[in-house]
Amino acid sequence: MDYWGEIVGQPEAVGTLQRASEPGAATAHAWLITGPPGSGRSNLAYRFAGALIARDAEERGAVWDLVNARTHPDLGVLTTQKLLIDIKAAREIVTTAHYAPAEGRYRVIVIEDADRMPERTSNVLLKALEEPPERTVWVLCAPSEADLLPTIRSRTRSVRLVTPSPAEIAGLLHERDGVDPVAAERAARLAQSHIGMARRLATDADAMARRERTITTALGIQTLGDAMRAAAALAKVAEADAAALSEQLDQQERDDALRSLGLQPGAAIPPQMRGQLRALEEDQKRRAKRSLRDGIDRILTDLLSLYRDVLLTSLGAEAELVNREESRRITELAERWKPRQALEVVTAVETARARLGRGITPGLVLEAMFSRLVVASEAGA
User: Fold this and answer.
1) HSE (CB half, 13 Å, CA atoms) of 121?
2) I want to staple 242 with a disulfide (CB 3.0 to 4.6 A). Which of 163, 229, 280, 295 is the partner?
3) Contact, 227 vs 373, CB < 8 A?
4) pLDDT tens for residues 256-276?
5) CA distances from residue 203 to 167, 183, 209 in whole angstroms, order as listed
6) Selection from 12, 35, 44 nearest residue 108 by Cα
């Protein structure tokens, strides 16, 4: 697979960044990569960073290994496990922007989730973009240009991504990860073209089982009691999913941190190094909280696909179902509901996602959503 081969469904974006990163090419000092969740924003940003840092095409593979591990000396990363990027972290990364590249052509600073910067934090970045160092390139990632201040947008060159097709993602899973074509197609379809989630579903049997449980639980709701039990059950599904993901990442990060300190995994921690590990543990705790909220949102996204399937079926639309494996039960539900009831349930899920984004307790969000589902279902009976 070539250097850009893992970026699927984005030929125009790849072409633009490939040309901008060629040795001798004039490149903008700041870029903004936007696109829907799962479209590969961060992966493309880091691929671009590696290409900018490498002195020539022959170096790209070795540079990418370090960039992918976030250990290259010419790479800076600003991200957060919190809901917002705080101003202190922004000030620290802005300071490093003035460092000259240690090994490569450029120093590159990637800001993941740039939409998580409140105005005060954005203003810190704005000053850096107004007076850019000669050999530093900023790469910001966000869902859309509207998520950033107009003054930030005006100082960046924009690259917009599109949602890759399930077939393109299935092809990547087969070629890169060796996933059986049938399993790859199913994972890409159920993930609704979210690249990261498709890989999890294709390679982690537990993740696929949790998604199946989500759909089965939702299809079994008929009464208000069912709704409350479903809310509690799916909250536990999200907790299990978040715990599994966090456990895997936490151990890898701890082992990497120990190696960077010159220690082997399992070795006693010298007192002078314990502060660094405590800071890592605090970051991991914050990530666990965010992972739980992200897990609830993933459940809501899966439910949204289910109820949209019901709505399309009730309308008699000629469209492929996301949850094709449950077509019989989807048809039965569509026959019980009128299109208006199905639309009301779809709206309830979208409302739940908005409430979750405002920080409302996930359990209450699920209970309110499923209660509304029962009311809509009874109205259509």
Assistant:
1) 20
2) 295
3) yes
4) 666 666 666 666 777 766 666
5) 17, 9, 12
6) 44
Question: Do residues 151 and 52 touch, judged by C-beta distance below 8 A?
Answer: no
Which pTM was predicted? 0.78
Report helix, strand or coil for 163.
coil
Structure tokens at 49: 């960073």
Q: Which of 159, 189, 125, 174 is nearest to 47 (CA)?
A: 159
Range 63-82 average pLDDT: 88
Quote the tokens at residue 256.
């990497």
pLDDT of residue 281: 66
Query: Beta-carbon neighbour count of residue 80 at 10 Å?
Result: 18
**Contact by Cβ (8 Å): 367, 374:** no
**In the numeric block, which tokens belong to residue 93?**
């990364």
- Residue 275 CA to residue 294 CA, distance in Å, equals 29
CB 264 within 8 A of CB 223: no
Distance CA 186, CA 182 (A): 6
User: CA 253 → CA 62, 257, 280, distances in Å?
Assistant: 21, 6, 8
The CA distance from 116 to 80, in Å, is 9
Strands 75-78 and 30-34 turn out to be: unpaired
